[in-house]
Amino acid sequence: MGISEVREYDCWLQGRGQNQFSDALKNCLSRIVVKEDCLVVKQAALELQRGLKRMFGVDAAITDTIQKPCTVVGTATAVSELTGKTVSCDRAEGFCIEIGDELSVVAGADCNGTLYGAFRLLMELAKGAGTGFSLEDAPRSGIRMINHWDNLDGTIERGYAGPSLFYKDDKIDYDPQRIEDYARLLASIGINCLSINNVNVRKTAKLLITEQFLPDVAKLADIFRPFGIRLMLSINFGAPYSFGDLDTADPLDPRVGEWWAKRADLVYKYIPDLAGFLVKADSEGEAGPFQYGRDHADGANMLAKALKPHNGTVIWRCFVYNCTQDWRDQTQDRACAAYDHFMPLDGRFDDNVILQIKHGPYDFQVREPVTPLFGALKKTRHLIEFQITQEYTGHQIDVCFLPYMWQDVYHFDTKHGENSTIGGMMGNRISGAVAVGSVGRDENWTGNTLSQANWFGFGRLAWNPDLTAEEIADEWVKLTFGLDPEVDAAVNKILMMSYPTYENYNAPFGVCFMVTRSLHYGPDIEGYEYSRWGTYHRANWEAVGVDRTPSGTNYTGQYAPENAAMFADLATCPENLMLFFHRVPYSYVMKNGKNLLQNIYDTHFKGVEQVEEIIRTWEGIQDKIGSAVYASVRERMGRQLTNAIEWRDVVNTYFHRHTGIPDEQGRKIYD
Amino acid sequence: MGISEVREYDCWLQGRGQNQFSDALKNCLSRIVVKEDCLVVKQAALELQRGLKRMFGVDAAITDTIQKPCTVVGTATAVSELTGKTVSCDRAEGFCIEIGDELSVVAGADCNGTLYGAFRLLMELAKGAGTGFSLEDAPRSGIRMINHWDNLDGTIERGYAGPSLFYKDDKIDYDPQRIEDYARLLASIGINCLSINNVNVRKTAKLLITEQFLPDVAKLADIFRPFGIRLMLSINFGAPYSFGDLDTADPLDPRVGEWWAKRADLVYKYIPDLAGFLVKADSEGEAGPFQYGRDHADGANMLAKALKPHNGTVIWRCFVYNCTQDWRDQTQDRACAAYDHFMPLDGRFDDNVILQIKHGPYDFQVREPVTPLFGALKKTRHLIEFQITQEYTGHQIDVCFLPYMWQDVYHFDTKHGENSTIGGMMGNRISGAVAVGSVGRDENWTGNTLSQANWFGFGRLAWNPDLTAEEIADEWVKLTFGLDPEVDAAVNKILMMSYPTYENYNAPFGVCFMVTRSLHYGPDIEGYEYSRWGTYHRANWEAVGVDRTPSGTNYTGQYAPENAAMFADLATCPENLMLFFHRVPYSYVMKNGKNLLQNIYDTHFKGVEQVEEIIRTWEGIQDKIGSAVYASVRERMGRQLTNAIEWRDVVNTYFHRHTGIPDEQGRKIYD
Q1: Would you state the pLDDT for residue A3?
Q2: Cα–Cα–Cα angle for A552, A554, A558, nearest 5°?
């Protein structure tokens, strides 16, 4: 293959000239047979047709009559009828694929499954699959969702890739073709639900559930529907009050329930298949049931009853903590908040309420333990929440391949009963995965082209939590950059080393929050030490970290006993979370025989060296990558190096100023 | 006197029922004789008439014929002619006052002097003067100016008293009566020049020098003119370029000079007595001659030539420093910047250029040394700049009587030649004083009523730098609160203790910049330690402060030798500036026998106790102060206490975490 430009816009659905089909296979693929009424199944055939053209230059026709060689697309029942051959796949949203020269088959367990099968066929072909290839697959869990933090003024909270796809100047305002292209990319990785406005529902955004905006929301839903994607709206819990209709938003006031029921009737009149409402309540200044002396079950159930007649769901965020703490009060521990608030409510929630729980107890820090609610909750539906947008992980300036850390989350064993890893609980105890999205109007969707891998990886892991970061990286690289072994090796190397690199030059050993406040990029070591946000490392002349063992805040006690004991013992606590769970003297000797202080110095010097290696690796394949993508990623890598150097020097200086102890290798630390 | 409400709006020009005139004196004052064409002299008579009514309830008539008993108002020549009695006062803008039962006289050396005499008569009467009182006075220097940092959108940069008096929604938009009342207050304390827009001239503000705004600026000038106040406009040095007229703003390009000359012609067509242009160039992102490889003399002189035909002046700010420093580079010292930039240009500036130099080398920190340019500049006209608005001194929430610190500036002896204190150089080597204003649309002008004292005090000190803070406080208290001895004592006590109190709970011993970035209120000890703004205390486990002696950055070398030696020696350096000039170990024993660390603890505990005492003192006179003023000041004092406690705890914790050494009195320091 040559050095054709990587088409950033098409992401992992571009052809890189990988598959040179045999004439026989080409003939088979060129006739697509579909004979079903389902909108999504029809879209599957269309996407197959378009994908074959876009990715491989193959012209295919769509017909409803079978005539071999051909490729039949449809639900398993329909395909069996058409082909006379029994095709079985019965796991929800699953599919099976068979590639043959005479007959290829894409059969879904249902409509969505068929669409996912069509996309998977395209991607497998791009990775080199041919005649004889077959695959059966299904998503582990039923909810695979993206949260948009888009504001109606067109800004995106924590967005690093241009303005909102959906809004501009307080209106719903979009390029319909781009929205369809977005839906395509989402469906290709199995996303089936999308909340389209920021969970902080302020100003005009409150009015999305009124007739001022609903017609436009409905049009947007029309675009996503053929792709098997249902929309959700973030609502403001205080709306009955802030709209001026009632003097309260108290969830136990019957008038409030009635208000929401009527509101739901109106909303569903416009979007009958709306997935429901997403709610951030009593959090960081948002309205909520606490204002009325009610609890979160009261609040969520009230909304659930309003949505119930429409088969709607309330997704209720567990990101509830005291953000007006006094830094002097060390008995308060924000890490405990989600469990403290929601564990006592287990069993109190209606069946169309789903809690949304961040994977870690804080807020998407570089390294956090898994939130102890997972595994502990027994009688409450819930989702695990990730963040694709790189709020604390480099703003899509720094390369940071998140599946590397997400796999650790999925592999974490909660030790609650059988099959108790997060991955193992997906689809049974955990209803699905949701992530804050990362896209905007930038041509390449994600600002940094390499950040597309995080978006892709979230979808792939939500589908199959057993995938490793290596597998995901490799798949993404092949789909995006093609099969050239040198490019393949280089980009895989960059992705796989990026997370540990970022972790090295960032806050050390799970201590969290040494980042600039508000901006959340670059170091501000004491930025949160005296703040109301309540997270501290409390570094002094001899030690750093927070004691969360029974001798401290006893956050460890929220875990199953085996994990509680493991975290509470400095000897068994994973070192990458050491400062999260323990207050550790700088002189503490770590597993590598060096003390904590020296390890802080070492990791920070190493992080910068690793960024330099990432840059060299990227520069090594310059000739094999289109110039635009090469240059835009390279420019970001320059900024990443500056950032890494700043982190290194500020962290090292900070600890050197506290201890007076120099680096044992005599490397430069600024006084 | 009773407990009538203090009329905050009238400030120091309200009557508090102090003067119960004898009938004879009342008769004499009731007939005001004025016979002159000068607008300002006529205003003097008017102000006397209005003031007698407003302040003392005395009805007076204005006439042009002398008939005793009467009070004659006018320039000395005119008064001598009218009364047949030789009145001599010949110092510019000076006056003499004589109070008699038959004939009182207010005679000015010139028009402005007459107006100042009229106001002084009113104030002296309010303080208790009567028949037989006489006074001759004149301002020490000719320029007594206020800078408004008002933006055209109505905001005020560093404003803490409501929106701009002048602007709203990108228009000149004001209450003419309020502007006249403002002019009155300014004239009463001798202010004769006013720049009306922010020195950061951005967006619409650039257009003030165009016909879009000039007619409205002219109307504003009309209001100030009878009060002897000339306006000035802040301009953007890059205007020829940013207006799109030229491809450069290079001061040595003849087209640029021509552009400004034409621009000046236009501006002066509308406001023939405009004082000139105020310029912030090459500072904090503003355009300037450095962009074109020119120096500040090139830039200022080019503008000066444009203004020369109109008798206009360029006031050129010396607040030029590198605000993109690297914190690692300890050879850079922002304190050196003004001297480094401007001392080499001494003698290069045209005679209608005046440099405006902040009193300290940084930026209005709580305690700074006097800028070494003063006394050193020999051949360049210059002003000293203060800040009335309490940017770093409590945001007009905290009581902080600034003349307490300003007197230290005026008393500082530069040791350059004869009569070398700042005060001594006023009116000869230093052309005048300028301050950033503090007023907005709040009813009481300054947010905190007690902050009126700073405004008043700036004017009084600009007039007479020999005044002490005690004298100013006492005068202001009597004029504002009346002559009740208990109120008098209490408010004087509050004012006089407020500055050392604020200094106690703020950054210790002249170390500066431990304040929150951007906001500049409340502590953020390391907020600037790793920033591009270039100011550091570099606290570590053993020491704090910056070595600016010859062994360090040698900033001390910018002072006259005697001062250089004094500052460079820790033993002779004033302790309130110790950490500005020296890096000092915590164990260093100070004059009181305690070490630095313990002194940091002590001052911070004391600062909070002093705020509590201020509150008790204010509460003690509640019954004697109108309820509105009492309550609004008391509410602010509550916030001040919270602020002081935060400063105390954060500063003490910070140093305790670095040293591990507890307070010797065992008081609470949070870990």
Answers
A1: 53
A2: 165
Single-letter amino acid code for the residue at B601: Y
B24: Cα within 13 Å, side-chain hemisphere: 9
- Structure confidence at residue A2 as a pLDDT band (50, 70, 90): very low
Range from A163-177, A566-580, B621-635 carrying the lowest mean pLDDT: B621-635
Is B211 an annotated catalytic residue? no
Q: Which two tokens stand for residue A21?
A: 């089909």
DSSP B158: T
Whether B391 sits among the annotated catalytic residues: the reply is yes
pLDDT for position A194: 98
Each residue of B181-212: pLDDT tens digit? 999 999 999 999 999 999 999 999 999 999 99
- Provide the pLDDT for residue B205: 96
The alpha carbon of residue A656 is apart from the nearest alpha carbon of chain B, in Å, by: 8
DSSP 8-state assignment for residue B102: S
Contact A541 B657 (CB under 8 A): yes
- When pLDDT is cut at 50, 70 and 90, the band that residue B5 belongs to is confident
Report yes or no: B324 at the A interface, CB cutoff 8 Å.
Answer: no
Catalytic residue (choose from A101, A110, A350, A391): A391
B475 confidence band (pLDDT: 50, 70, 90): very high
One-letter-per-residue 3-state SS of A568-593:
HCCCCCCHHHHHHHCCEECCCECCCC
* A530–B523 CB contact, under 8 Å: yes
pLDDT in tens, B575-586: 999 999 999 999
The residue in chain B having the minimum alpha-carbon distance to the alpha carbon of residue A659 is B541
Residue written as tokens 């207010």?
Answer: B106
**Residues of chain B with pLDDT > 70: what percent?**
100
Give the closest residue to A108 by CA, choosing from A138, A131, A132, A83: A138
A194-218: burial string, b at 16+ Cβ within 10 Å, e else: bbbbbbbbeebbbbbbeeebbebbb
Task: Render pLDDT for A254-298 as a digit per residue (tens, 0 to 9).
Answer: 999 999 999 999 999 999 999 999 999 998 888 899 999 999 999
Q: Out of B170, B245, B284, B340, which one is annotated catalytic?
A: B284
The pTM score is: 0.94
Nearest CA in chain B to A645: B328
Active site residue A602: no
Which residue in A327, A530, A657 is closest to B539 by CB distance?
A: A657
Q: Which two tokens stand for residue A473?
A: 């990286």
| Token couple for B495 | 């004012």
Q: Give the whole-angstrom CA distance, residue B380 versus residue B342.
A: 10
Contact between chains at A524 and B540 (C-beta distance less than 8 A): no
Task: For CA atoms A264, A265, A266, A272, give the dihedral sign.
Answer: positive
Q: Both tokens of residue A440?
A: 């905007």
Which chain A residues touch B530 with a CB distance below 8 Å? Answer: 523-524, 646, 650, 653
Please tell me the distance in Å from B346's CA to the nearest CA on chain A: 36
CA–CA distance, B656 with B601 (Å, rounded to integer): 9
CB contacts, 8 Å: A524 with chain B: 526, 530
Chain B partners of A541 at a C-beta cutoff of 8 Å? 541, 657-660
pLDDT in tens, B311-320: 999 999 998 8
Q: Which of A383, A363, A351 is nearest to A146 (CA)?
A: A383
Task: Check if A332 contacts B (Cβ < 8 Å).
Answer: no
CA distance A632 to A618: 12
Q: Is A657 on the interface with B (CB under 8 A)?
A: yes
The reported pLDDT for the residue numbered B3 is: 52
Q: Per-residue pLDDT for B2 more than 50?
A: no
CB contact under 8 A, A671 and B542: no
CB B544 within 8 A of CB B507: no
**What is the rounded CA–CA span in Å between residue B391 and residue B375?**
27
Name which of B169, B174, B186 is nearest B219 in CA terms. B174
